[in-house]
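Quick one: co-fold with adenosine-5'-diphosphate.
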Amino acid sequence: VTGAVAPSRANKREPVALENGGRAEIERLASRNAGLERSVEELERFVFIASHDLQESLRTITAYAQLLARKCHGPLDTESAWCVDKIVDGATRMRELLTDLLAYSELGSHPQGAVGPVNLNSVVESVTENLKASIDENHAVVTSEPLPILNAQASDFIPLFQNLLANALKYRGKRPPRIHISVQRMNGQLRFAVSDNGIGIDRAHHRQIFEPFKRLHGKNIPGTGLGLAICERVIQRYAGRIWVESRAGEGATFLFTLPDTSLSSAVES
Ligand code: ADP
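Sure, here it is.
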């Protein structure tokens, strides 16, 4: 009898104990999660404010270095001109870095704004216009399949395509860059591809290049190391995924997916 009663008591108590323990654990994790979310938000806000304020100081440095150069009577001697150029170059590079940091932190801390129809063909047209000088200088050819209209936030897609196309131009090989944009609809997703014939990326670095500040190709090619991190943040806003397929020396194809629910009703009908 004892044997029969004891397990049944234990059985009755066990779920209660588990329930209490489980609930306490869930509450502990939820509060920890809320704390972490707050810290991340504070950090993003901090980066945003710091980048913004530092840009002001940089504008001042550049303006006064140039003013000083103008104020000196007659042309500057070679060494002084070199120093002014270095100050202005350094400030310009730092401003580019802060602009990208600002864009990156905004994508993390600001909720997605109003969505509306975004014609990706127009986005690519604007981006190629922005990059016209570099396209011409490199004798590059950019082609694109007809792209869809998305229900999205317009300001997200310019930086996405601009970073991908700018990289395809910067990391060019010996031949003039050929860049092609395509899209496929498959398994409830839109799969975009931006492919180039540039220097390519070794397999070992395929994941790392999406991390902020990870640069493979050194000091001779300008860049902040934030372009692909910005692209990834944009894609994650729409619950998509971005990755690269490439081999060193054989060009690169950057692929990203978006759920096809992000298609604007303008193209569904
Ligand atoms: P940035 O171009 O400013 O260095 P990104 O985050 O845009 O930073 O890219 C990270 C790194 O990935 C680059 O420094 C480069 O080494 C590599 N990369 C990006 N795009 C390409 C490409 N199309 N072909 C070859 N390498 C690339």
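If it helps, The chain is about 55% helix and 15% strand.
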